[in-house]
Amino acid sequence: MSNKFLGRATIRLNGQVYETAAGATLDIGGIKRNPIVVGRKIGYAEETVPATISCETALMEGQSLTELQNLADATVIFECDTGQSFVIRNAFRTDTSTMKDGAGGNLTIAIAGDAAEAMD
């Protein structure tokens, strides 16, 4: 085993690469267990929650903001610089495109979809 920890993530949206700024997050989704308390009995009820990705990237020359905004039914891969990768199928944008000028034209991306699957 190595001493390397996650330092960077790359997002692939239908094959197009988006390098991310520090702070990209992946929630793998799946089954969430909500606690239920009835008298002295404690249990849980399950619900399905989507996988989500939230990140910031820089808008590069030639990238289509419209294509990104209309992202639906996509395959998204969250690649870690430690070698792990996770795929989210049936993914879609969950917000509108917000872009800031200067310092690379920072662009926020928020995506949801099916529970993430580890790629081997």
What does this structure look like?
The chain has 120 residues and is mainly beta. It has one domain: Elongation Factor Tu (Ef-tu), domain 3, CATH 2.40.30. Helix content is 4%, strand content 56%. It has one helix at residues 65-69, and strands spanning 9-13, 16-19, 25-27, 30-38, 41-49, 51-58, 74-80, 85-93, 98-99, 106-113, 117-119. Strands 1, 2, 3, 6, 7, 8, 9, 10 and 11 form a nine-stranded antiparallel sheet that branches. The protein has a two-stranded antiparallel ribbon with strand order 4-5. The longest helix has 5 residues, at 65-69. It is globular and about 60 Å long.
Question: What is the strand and helix layout of this fold?
Answer:
Blueprint: E1 9-13, E2 16-19, E3 25-27, E4 30-38, E5 41-49, E6 51-58, H1 65-69, E7 74-80, E8 85-93, E9 98-99, E10 106-113, E11 117-119
Antiparallel strand pairs: 1-2, 1-7, 3-6, 4-5, 6-10, 7-8, 8-10, 8-11, 9-10
